[in-house]
Design a protein that fits this description.
The complex is a heterodimer of chains A (about 190) and B (about 300).
Chain A: H1 2-23, H2 27-47, H3 51-75, H4 91-111, H5 125-134, H6 138-159, H7 164-168
Chain B: E1 6-7, H1 15-38, H2 43-47, H3 49-59, H4 70-88, E2 96-97, H5 104-125, H6 129-160, H7 165-170, H8 177-180, H9 182-195, H10 219-244, H11 255-273, H12 282-310
Parallel strand pairs in B: 1-2
Helix pairs in contact in B: 1-10, 1-11, 3-10, 4-5, 4-10, 5-6, 6-9, 6-12, 9-10, 10-11
The chains are: A mainly alpha (about 190), B mainly alpha (about 300).
Family (chain A): Belongs to the complex I subunit 6 family.
Pfam families (chain A): Oxidored_q3
Protein name (chain A): NADH-quinone oxidoreductase subunit J
């Protein structure tokens, strides 16, 4: 009973703070409203017996939101993010899309003939969830992840405005790198 | 004489914040005493300074800044203490723990990440330049603190083959982890100090930016932040005990008392370091963290993993 109440309270908090993201008029508030929503979801995951996944969700999401706030403020240069501002744009179309998606998913959840439960939940839910998601696709993941990782590295190397040739000269022969600000190791 | 760790009734949770506050007070008292000694004033008056400070801040009127984001400001100010209390839930006091989580080590780490947000919120809420600079100064280095800390935290977990704090304590039955993973211990201590924005890492509240995120907080808010800082420091010191210092293991005294004694010693070292080590320049620290500290932490995990697999 108490667990049910807590679950519904968390569900309400997660949806309400999700709504708050678009209602509030400040970048910082929108960001941290989203963080609150994720924290509520993380606790619900813990309640479902997925301790590791729930807590790691909170960890990752709070970290991401903290960094996202910085980037949102940083990139909102022409429209000062330090001032109150509207968090929505293209209002009519986004409302149509949001309501449509909600109706579709909710109808799916309600109308689908869910199968009855067979067997009991596994002892280690996190491990069996990982097995279910990754098990048959391990080979594909092992192939894709190096490619993805290489893509990230390559993207960074290309995009980095201060790569090694900028820092050490065209033939990489400069004694000390040409940096606007030197790091702690004098490099 | 280490006993298996058991989870006690949640009713005891009332005592946990009290104990934490006592540790925070002791830390503040030691800091006051050290300040007084270096200024040539009587040590006893310095040790009592926190009481005077509490009385002063409780009576002080709140300073108000223009267009402050009061909600986020208050969350930031009050949050530090809450996070510190949540941290100690998984720390066993001798044989007793409040929450015997399967993933206690990750829980502690998650609470550390909350601090990223809190210091930035304190800086943001005031709507003033110096406070904002202080908040950004902390957050921009948080990754440099966090990654070495994460690897320092998993090192004992790798050796114990478990993320449960109780298992980590049990794995130190023969040999304390601090002895064969000293690098991880030092990095852990450094990161705890950094996440408390304390001592050499206190640049977010630095004097060069007029107190940074502390510049505009006053009254009860300031009291909560300063207390929360000591509480986070104390919680980190307390977590070093089950992680590296054998938990409640020790001769003669009962396990719970050893936990308290060890925590007090680590906390004293954390507080004292402020008076021994100069401030680390924030603009230069990132490179040191990524090029020296992080590889050192990784090497430590590697060595520990090889030993753990081999044994």
């Amino acid at each position: 009973m108490l667990v049910d109440l807590l679950f519904w309270a968390l569900a309400f908090v997660s949806v309400a703070s999700g709504v708050a993201v678009f209602v509030v008029d400040s970048m910082a508030r929108a960001t941290y409203a989203l963080a609150v929503s994720f924290i509520a979801v993380g606790i619900m995951l813990v309640m479902a017996g997925l301790e590791y996944i729930g807590i790691i969700t909170i960890l990752m999401m709070v970290m991401e939101m903290a960094i996202m706030a910085v980037y949102m403020v940083m990139y909102m240069g022409m429209n000062p993010a330090l001032m109150p501002m509207d968090m929505t744009h293209s209002k009519r179309w986004s409302a149509v899309l949001a309501v449509g998606t909600f109706v579709l998913l909710a109808a799916g959840a309600l109308l689908i003939p869910w199968p009855a439960r067979v067997g009991a939940p596994a002892a280690d839910l996190t491990a069996s969830l990982g097995e279910a998601i990754m098990g048959p696709k391990m080979l594909a993941m092992l192939t894709i992840s190096p490619v993805l990782f290489a893509t990230i590295i390559a993207g960074l190397v290309i995009a980095n405005p201060r790569g090694r040739y900028d820092r050490w000269g065209d033939d990489l022969k400069r004694g000390t790198p040409n940096d606007p600000m030197r790091g702690g190791l004098g490099r | 004489m280490t006993e298996p760790i058991v989870q006690v009734s949640p009713a005891w949770a009332v005592l946990a914040p009290l104990a934490l506050l006592l540790f925070a007070l002791a830390g503040a008292g030691l800091n006051g005493a050290l300040v007084a000694r270096s200024a040539g004033r009587p040590v006893r008056s310095g040790a009592g300074a926190p009481f005077a400070q509490v009385a002063r801040l409780l009576r002080q009127r709140r300073q108000v800044t223009v267009a402050a984001d009061v909600l986020l400001w208050r969350i930031g100010a009050g949050g530090l203490l809450v996070v510190a209390i949540l941290k100690i839930l998984v720390i066993p006091l001798g044989p007793w723990t409040l929450a015997d989580l399967d993933v206690g080590v990750v829980w502690f780490n998650t609470m550390d990440v909350m601090i990223w947000a809190l210091f930035w919120l304190i800086g943001w809420g005031a709507n003033s330049a110096h406070a904002l600079v202080g908040g950004y100064r902390f957050l921009s280095l948080a990754v440099s603190y966090e990654l070495p800390l994460m690897f320092a935290l998993i090192t004992p977990a790798v050796a114990a083959r478990s993320l449960r704090v109780g298992d980590v304590v049990a794995a130190q039955h023969d040999l304390w982890f601090v002895i064969w993973m000293p690098v991880a211990f030092v990095i852990f201590c450094g990161s705890v100090i950094a996440f408390s924005s304390w001592g050499p890492f206190a640049t977010g509240a630095g004097r060069d930016i007029a107190g940074g995120f502390l510049a505009d907080v006053s009254g009860v808010d300031r009291l909560l932040i300063l207390t929360g800082r000591y509480a986070v420091l104390a919680a980190g010191a307390a977590f070093a005990v089950p992680l590296f210092l054998g938990g409640g293991a020790g001769p003669l005294l009962p396990d719970w008392l050893w936990t308290i004694v060890k925590t007090a010693l680590v906390l004293a070292a954390f507080v004292a370091i402020r008076h021994r080590v100069p401030t680390i320049r924030p603009d230069r620290f990132a490179e040191v963290a990524w090029i020296i500290v992080l590889p050192a932490a990784l090497l430590q995990v590697l060595v520990v993993a090889i030993i753990a697999v081999g044994s």
